[in-house]
Write the structure tokens for this entry.
Amino acid sequence: MPSVLAPSAPLLLPAQPHRILHVFRAPVGGLFRHVVDLTRLQAASGHQVGIVCDATTGGARAEAALADLAPCLALGVTRVPMRRNPHLSDAAALLAVARRARAVGADVLHGHGAKGGAYARLCPIPGQAPVIRAYTPHGGSYNYRPGTPMHRLYMAAEGVLARRTDVFLFESEYVAQRHRAYVGTAAGLTRIVHNGIAASEFAPVEPASDPFDLLYVGELRDAKGLPVLLQALARLRAEGRPVRLLMVGSGPDAESLAGQVRTLGLADAVAFEPAQPIRPVLARGRIMVVPSFAESLPYVVLEAAAAAQPLVATNVGGIPEIFGTAADDLVPPRDASALTAAIARVLDEAPETRRSRFAALSASVRLRFSMERMGADVLSGYAAAFRARRLDEAASRAGATPGTVRVRSGL
């Protein structure tokens, strides 16, 4: 029976520094922020870190972020073409990951997201010291609707890949539950490592002059619930509320969303802007709206909650884990009426009541989502996987079934 590790307290650093290679596809969004934060924390702890990611996404913003991160990347950055969906070119990308891992002598391959997780766990590294393979899903393949062909395909793939996973570092209890329900009990060690944010992100945001009433920050995809948000906006305006919405981000459905804005007669009420740092954007909206149909543990919710930004969000994925005791305030997904009512409630709330409510959420997030704890839990997850590997090797030499000693020892 595999073990489940409880979240750690203070980190016990390994005797030897690790050579860690983070593997993921797109250098954008919350997944990229997670890797960037981990890289800084791991480098500061004395480990050598490198990145392998897609060469075709992220644009100038990703280039600038990677250049800024360069002093922390002792093992450098390798960028190769990676497709979002399964493709014949995956074979070449897989070999590129394996070559890079051998070249830098990586002893930890940490895959992020479905594509990065597949590369990190499948790539062959013959003739090298034991390599620990860690996996953080970030939602991804687990967010497909259960029972659909794509969901069955990806869960079957996750079942195969689980056999090559030393430690699962699930970013939310929600994704861990999905894994147990649709893949099965993890064969490797598992722990929940919530995304964490820095103390500086709890500083108050000074509101801009003439802010928008509503703010959306994220990928422009229908799956983010944006058609429902536009319906809610139209309903609010039909009620006589002259509310305006700022949508910040980019994505494959940008043009169709712009068309929906025109169809609903909202051209004067909605502004689109490209992706940009979130804190200056938070100052330009009174209420952040997160209408997603599926999420894991979104940074945008953590960042807004930390800044005590008034929030309306759907009850999906790991968002209830962020809201904690305030999770009853969350809205059912795909329900324009419920979203409209929730936004109207915050708009009509007495300012002092609203400030108090979201200050309490900020204080709760500060206690539960520390960046330092995130970094410590990831490193101690690696350490536990190395201990388990040594125990399995000892058990094998003694003629016992690998994993027996590990389970009895509580790892």
Summary: The radius of gyration is 22 Å. The longest helix spans residues 371-397. The chain has two domains: 19-196+371-409, 200-368. DSSP finds 15 helices and twelve strands in the chain.
